[in-house]
Amino acid sequence: MSLTTTVHVLRHGEVFNPEKILYGRLPGYRLSDRGVRMAEVVAAALAGRDVTYLVASPLERAQQTAAPIGATFGLDTDTDERLIESGNWFEGKRFGVGDGALKNPSVWPKLRNPFRPSWGEPYVEIARRMTAALHDARDRAAGHEAVCVSHQSPIWLLRRYAEGRKLWHDPRKRQCSLASLTSFHFDGERLSGISYSEPAADIVADSPVAAEHGA
């Protein structure tokens, strides 16, 4: 009989970012107090499940989000560079709807091709590295459950890739809230289903950055 395995891909909690910049892969961006509570709620929601493997993006906010899960299950957190945030030319800048960034001619060349995208790491490369990380986590937790902590854009691209959908999308329509779980269910090596849950939804609803994209 094939082993049944579930890999939960967890988006990190809210980040302390008073400057409201696109922080991307920049160091030093930690969870806010609310983000820490989100991580704790997710760990509590997973308690009692059969989690035997825990891995996270190297970025601090992902490692922090993983910590309560590790404490709950007595697991060390492995680090996988493939789970890292998407590369983005606008990293370190304020860039959003209504802030005037799109009126600056210097950014226009970076926006010429939203299908690749021209402003950062290609969607297909993100999807492929995330898929490889997902499969490695599945193998490490074969017959049990794993948790991978990553970031909104990579998680959403992983899901679209697994579902055979086009990778280009409207970031405002991503189903990948702060501290949400996108769970991939396997029968042996075959993906049998994908489910989605928001254990920290009540806390997220009170977050001023709940609608933040690409974090």
Q: Topology as H/E string?
A: EHEHEHEHEEH
CATH classification class = Alpha Beta
Distance between the termini: 40 Å
Portion of residues within helices: 25-40%
Q: If you consult CATH, what is the topology?
A: Rossmann fold
| Arithmetic mean of pLDDT | 88
Give the count of helical stretches. Answer: 5
Q: What fraction strand?
A: 15-25%
Protein name: Histidine phosphatase family protein
GO molecular function, one term: phosphatase activity
Give a verbal description of the structure.
Pfam families: His_Phos_1. One of its GO terms (molecular function) is phosphatase activity. It comes from Actinocatenispora rupis. With about 220 residues, the chain is of the alpha/beta class. The protein has a single domain, classed as Rossmann fold, CATH 3.40.50.1240. It is about 30% helix and about 15% strand. It has helices spanning about 35-45, 60-75, 125-140, 150-160, 200-205; strands at about 5-10, 50-55, 80, 145-150, 180-185, 190-195. The protein has a six-stranded mixed sheet with strand order 3-2-4-1-5-6, sandwiched between helices. Helix 2 (about 60-75) links the parallel strand 2 (about 50-55) and strand 3 (about 80). Helix 1 (about 35-45) runs parallel beside helix 2 and helix 3 packs across helix 4. The protein is globular, with a radius of gyration of 17 Å. Residues about 210-215 have low confidence and may be disordered.
